[in-house]
Write a structure and sequence with these properties.
The complex is a heterodimer of chains A (about 350) and B (about 400). Helices cover about 40% and strands about 20% of the residues of chain A. By secondary structure, chain A is an alpha/beta fold. Chain B is of the alpha+beta class. In chain B, the strands form 3 sheets. Chain B has a 4-stranded antiparallel sheet. In chain B, strands 4-5 form a two-stranded antiparallel ribbon. Chain B is built from 11 helices and 8 strands. Classes of the chains: A alpha/beta (about 350), B alpha+beta (about 400). The interface between A and B is large, with 54 and 53 residues.
């Protein structure tokens, strides 16, 4: 009996000690045979499983791109749906390898949560959705309004800041998930629903009668959304970071899903380096040299991912705006592959 | 091991002495537990530091920066996380406290009704118990919340209730009573009435023991405690004013605001727990043997007196321990508030504060300590009450 307790205690101690030694994320993923990806699960355009259980979305495709780079197979991803409130704990505890859940990059999250943000894959800002019948033209007319919001988001804080800065009164009704918040807004509990503008497009499609609702023009905050990884594994941090950068570089250099094989024969030195026909940049990351070919072949470049999930062919019809390449008047700019 | 040799104890090796052996085992077990707890805490602290996750309790005094819909104490977006904790705790205590009172009242009524000789009444009570306690509480809360929201009118067609109150899908808005000049005489009279009622009770009890004559204690108590302050209130010219709620563009301002989330949670928790309390009460009453009732009747007690003086006091001994469990369940279940947007401790502290500070270990530890404390205090009170009503053997 005594020995039983001791052994049990030792097992716990060893198990919890082993948890910290997770510097080798890439090896763990290879052994496991799948990438664990923390995704949204309820947000059209960013992360949402369809009726057959196939995940689709902008952030989802980022996880597929990482899986394609590692395994040459974009389906080797296990998606873990996370609420805004639980997402950081899931990443910190090692339940997921990467958090791709439209997460705003802020200083406190980057420093005190034990996370590293790997860049901004979507430049966003916070907006408001209201009923058309209220005949509002501006968020500044929302004094004293009741506003539904999702818990555990920067949204919650920006909202309070915006009302404080404009000396307006606020009644916040906070819900654990966006589903409940939107449902309460739709039931008339609140005058407005607020979240990132990109998400508002998707949420507007979820209310009973989309045409009765409008998104107000004001954007009240900066929301640089990006993927995040745990502190302590620089190699893994580099892989996730450069997955984003090569997607941008591929778009900039005109390397797309359809022409990637043809581009392999290109004489352009930049394309040669990007696709691994020259140099050993993939190996330095711990990946095959042609990892960009794998990514682009399976999921396309940044522009293709954007159009497929958020652009004109989708019900969301979001314009590139700030997310256009720097060369086309946007903010998306990647360091060079060299 | 014969009795005769008891004075000259045989020298047993400590290895075989059961007392010594059990002491050693206990010390060892304690040491192992202390070691395990210490190494778990130490390991967690080291891991947090290695991953550069902030730890410690400095966050308590930092600005929270988020808004809360129901605050019993002053709170604004510039208050601290610590303040937000107290707001959440008070909201939890409010809904748990009121829930316990309402659930007890409904539970006792339904429990007694289930034993009624009237078939309709007992079947209705039975149906209530069976339906409510067999559905998950979360489902019921969502049902009440959505039912309440859907059934209530929009702000623009608010129901205007008599006395200047409004009811709509933003909540129930009541006029807020404000004490005017000269109101202080009313609580004074209440205290005097209460003291008078207690004195009357003592006197009536002594007289009954001496002479056997009964006095109308209930009527006298009612007159002294309610009647006296009421008379003072009316005689001093109704010194009270009301802050009436007014309809604004978006919301109703002023008055007392009762949120639909609060109503749904209170309603759901009370109705759910009442079903269990009803069963506890029914079992308790059935546990009192029928001979007691017959004996009381044969002494000439009326049915009401029999229930009050003979059956219920004995049933309470059976009812109180499981009742404590139900009270604890209700308090703990109040944390389901998070699903319907009521700002309780879990929603505010273990939800928003945890997420904004990222300090899961500290925040969850505090939250667990709070629920443990609430539960232990409730248990203590109920145990004390149980000991008071326990059968005293003479």
């Amino acid at each position: 009996m005594k020995r039983g307790i001791l052994t049990f205690g030792l097992a716990i101690a060893i198990a919890s000690a082993a948890f910290s030694a997770s510097a080798q994320t890439l090896n763990a993923i290879k052994q496991r045979g799948a990438l664990n990806c923390g995704a949204n699960g309820t947000l059209a355009g960013f992360g949402l499983p369809d009726a057959q259980g196939n995940w689709a979305g902008f952030d989802v495709d980022y996880c597929r791109a990482i899986a394609a780079a590692i395994f040459d197979d974009p389906t080797k991803v296990k998606f873990v749906p996370l609420s805004a409130k639980d997402r950081f704990t899931a990443l910190q505890s090692g339940e997921v390898d990467v958090l791709a859940r439209n997460t705003t990059w802020t200083i406190s999250r980057d420093t005190s949560l034990g996370l590293n943000f790997t860049g901004t894959n979507y430049y966003d800002g916070q907006g408001f959705m209201v009923r058309k019948s209220l005949k509002l033209n501006s968020a500044l007319e929302l004094n004293d309004a009741a506003i539904c919001v999702q818990q555990g988001t920067t949204t919650e804080l920006n909202l309070a800041d915006f009302f404080r800065a404009n000396r307006m009164k606020l009644k916040t009704v906070t819900f654990a998930t966006s589903t409940e918040a939107v449902k309460a807004y739709d039931a008339g509990r609140c005058d407005a629903y607020t979240t990132d503008a990109s998400a508002l497009y998707g949420e507007r499609l979820r209310v009973a009668n989309s045409n009765d609702h409008v998104v107000l023009p004001e954007i009240i905050s900066k929301e640089p959304l990006g993927l995040a990884v745990r502190h302590g594994d620089d190699q893994w941090y580099d892989i996730v970071k450069w997955t984003h950068f090569v997607l941008l570089n591929a778009e900039e250099l005109g390397v797309a899903k359809a022409n990637v094989d043809a581009q392999m024969k290109s004489d352009n030195p930049e394309i040669k380096r990007l696709l691994g026909t020259e140099g050993k940049y993939g190996e330095a990351l711990g990946l095959p040299n042609d990892f960009v070919v794998r990514i682009v072949k399976h999921v396309g470049n940044y522009g293709e991912i954007f159009e497929r999930n958020l652009g004109q062919p989708t019900p969301l019809k979001i314009a590139r705006g700030l997310n256009a390449l720097w060369s086309k008047g946007g903010l998306q700019y990647a360091p060079p592959v060299r | 091991m014969s009795r005769a040799g008891a004075d000259e104890k045989p020298a047993i090796s400590p290895l075989h002495d059961p007392r010594w052996r059990s002491a050693v085992y206990q010390v060892l077990l304690c040491a192992v537990i202390v070691f395990l707890v210490y190494s778990a805490v130490d390991n967690a602290a080291q891991n947090l530091q290695r991953a550069r996750i902030a730890s410690g309790f400095d966050f308590w005094h930092r600005t929270a920066g988020f808004d809360i819909s129901q605050t019993l104490i002053d709170y604004s977006t510039v208050s601290t996380y610590g303040r937000a904790f107290w707001v959440g705790l008070l909201n939890t205590l409010l809904v748990a406290g009121l829930g316990i009172i309402i659930a007890t009242i409904i539970g006792f009524i339904v429990g007694i009704a289930r034993l009624s000789k009237n078939a309709l009444v007992s079947r209705l009570a039975g149906g209530y118990v069976e339906v409510i306690r067999n559905l998950p509480l979360l489902l019921q809360l969502l049902f009440w919340y959505n039912a309440v929201l859907k059934a209530l009118p929009e702000l623009s067609d608010s129901l205007v209730l008599p006395g200047g109150a409004f009811l709509n899908n933003r909540g129930l808005f009541l006029p807020q009573p404000v004490a005017g000049a000269g109101f202080s005489v009313v609580p004074l009279m209440f205290v005097i009435g209460l003291a008078g009622a207690l004195l009357f009770r003592v006197w009536a009890k002594r007289r009954q023991e001496r002479t056997g004559l009964q006095a109308p204690i209930l009527l006298a108590t009612f007159l002294l405690v309610i009647g006296l302050p009421l008379a003072a209130f009316l005689l001093s010219g109704v010194p009270i004013e009301f802050g009436y709620p007014e309809k604004g563009r978006f919301n109703i301002r002023g008055g007392i605001e009762i949120l639909p989330e609060f109503m749904a949670l209170l309603f759901g928790l009370s109705i759910y727990t009442a079903a269990f309390i009803a069963e506890v009460v029914r079992a308790g009453i059935l546990a009192v043997s029928h001979g007691q009732t017959e004996a009381a009747y044969s002494l000439g007690l009326r049915p009401g007196q029999t229930l009050r003086r003979v059956v219920i006091p004995q049933a309470m001994r059976v009812i109180v321990p499981p009742l404590t469990n139900q009270y604890l369940n209700l308090t703990k279940n109040s944390s389901l508030a998070v699903a319907i947007g009521y700002p309780d401790l879990v929603q505010i502290f273990a939800g928003t504060v945890l997420n904004q500070t990222g300090q899961a270990v500290e925040v969850i530890a505090i939250t667990m300590a709070v629920y443990l404390t609430i539960s232990l205090v409730t248990s203590l009170l109920m145990n004390w009450y149980n000991a008071r009503i326990a059968l005293v053997e003479r």
